[in-house]
Every structure is written in C-alpha cells, then in structure tokens.
Amino acid sequence: MPKKLVILGTNGNCVDMLDAIDAINAYEGHVVYECVGFVDDNPSLHGTKLCGIEILGPLAIAGDLKGCHFVNGIGSPSNFTLKNAIISKTGVPLERFETIIHPSVKISKTAQIGQGTVVFENVAVTSNVKIGNHVIILPNSVISHDVEIGDYTCITGGVCISGGTAVGTSCYLGTNCSIIGGIKIGDYSLVGMGSVVLGTVAENSVVVGNPARFIRHARK
C-alpha cells in the first residue's frame, strides 16, 4: 500500500518533489508514494490545487493529518535560517518525515543520509559523507568525500563541495558555488550564487564573489 505523502510548501522545489516521487514510483515498478496534498501558510491558496493536488491548509494542520508522511520543500535565501522553526511549527515528529532520493542519485555505500532529507536528480554523494536531517540538495551537486552537512541546510543546484569540508546547520549554498576542501562553513551562513570559497566562513555570515568575501550577517 503506498505511503500517503504531504508536502510542506508550494514553491518550485515542492513541485519538483512531485517529479522525484513519480521517478521513484517508476523505478520501483509500483506506487511507493502518493502525494495527497500540500500545506502552506498563505491563506489565499487554501482549498486551491497545485498540479491537480489540493492545498489543504496551513502548516499547523499537518499534525492532524492522520496516516500521512511528510516532506519539506520550504527553504530559500530569505528564510533558510528559520527552517528549523518552520518545520517545528507543524508539530510533526522527525520519524514521520520521509527521506526522498531521486533514483538517478549516486550515493556511496559509506555515506549517511539523515531523516527528512531530499536529494534531487544527478547528485553525487561520495565516500564517508554525513548528511543531517531535513537537508535539501538540488540537481547536479557534488558532495565530495568526508564532507559533513548539518541539519536544515539547503544545497542548491550545481554546488561542488570539496573533500573534508564541514557545512553547518541551517546554511544556504547558492547555485554553482564551489567550496574548497577542509574548511568549515559556520551555522546560519549563506554562500552566494557562483561564489568560490577558499577559506573558513564564520557563523551567521553572507559571503559572495571569487574569492568569496564577507558582506553582512545573515540574521540580526
């Protein structure tokens, strides 16, 4: 019997999750997941449909949806530091969140992937990588050997993280950025699109450019 799945949010990543679910079902040869709804805090969306699937109501109702499993698609440059709080608002325990991995992903047998994490197509996760809970990794990113990624972090498309790097909790790595090996990206930090990070990034920092430089704090 397929698992009933509810997606948190209605942004583009959330729609992409439908494609990932369809790919998993096709790969397995049977229906593993059935998406039965979205939840979103925008009241103008409640009762409408997205891709033919109903937007059921606000995040707060998630805990009342009996028999459902969940996946989170919320996370952007404007709210990435709040991802923990947003998910906590649902009251849904970690064990009810599904780990969604597109069938095209290449994962080393020595890698570890946390609960509620979503990995989109053509990502490479290599040896001894440790990925936390509620992480999202968008297409075509490369996570090299011995990298650690903290809970709630967003890795966007085409990111390359070199070996031995530690990425903190609730970080946001912008499209096509590159991270040198053996450094640390502090918690609640954002690396801008296309940036080249050649040294440690302090907690709560926004860095951009080649080489990446500090421009402001991520949160006040």
Please give a quick description of this structure:
This protein is mainly beta and 220 residues long.
What does this entry look like structurally?
- This protein folds into two domains: 3-96, Rossmann fold; 100-217, Hexapeptide repeat proteins (UDP N-Acetylglucosamine Acyltransferase, domain 1, 3 Solenoid), CATH 2.160.10.10.
- Helix content is 10%, strand content 31%.
- The protein has two helices and 24 strands.
- The chain has helices spanning 12-28, 83-88, and strands at residues 3-8, 33-39, 49-50, 53-57, 68-72, 100-101, 106-107, 112-113, 118-119, 124-125, 130-131, 136-137, 142-143, 148-149, 154-155, 160-161, 166-167, 172-173, 178-179, 184-185, 190-191, 196-197, 205-208, 213-217.
- Strands 6-9-12-15-18-21-23-24 form an eight-stranded mixed sheet, with helices on one face. The chain has a six-stranded parallel sheet with strand order 7-10-13-16-19-22, with no helix packed on it.
- The longest helix is centred in the N-terminal third of the chain and has 17 residues, at 12-28.
- The N and C termini lie far apart (47 Å).
- 40% of the residues are buried.
- The model has no long low-confidence stretch (mean pLDDT 97).
Largest sheet, spatial ordering of strands: 6-9-12-15-18-21-23-24
Determine the fraction of residues in helical runs and give it as a percent range: 10-25%
**Poorly predicted runs of 5 or more residues:** none
CATH topology descriptor of the largest domain:
UDP N-Acetylglucosamine Acyltransferase, domain 1
The count of helical stretches stands at 2
Mean pLDDT over the residues: 97
Order of helices and strands: EHEEEEHEEEEEEEEEEEEEEEEEEE
CATH architecture of the largest domain: 3 Solenoid
Could you say which overall geometry the principal axes of the C-alpha atoms support?
globular
In the CATH scheme, the class of the largest domain would be: Mainly Beta
Distance between the termini: 47 Å
The biggest sheet, with number of strands, parallel, antiparallel or mixed sense and barrel status, is: 8 strands, mixed
The CATH homologous superfamily of the largest domain is named: Hexapeptide repeat proteins
Strand pairing plus helix content: what structural class?
mainly beta
Tell me the count of domains: 2
- What integer value in Å does the Rg equal? 17 Å
Q: Beta fraction of the residues?
A: 25-35%
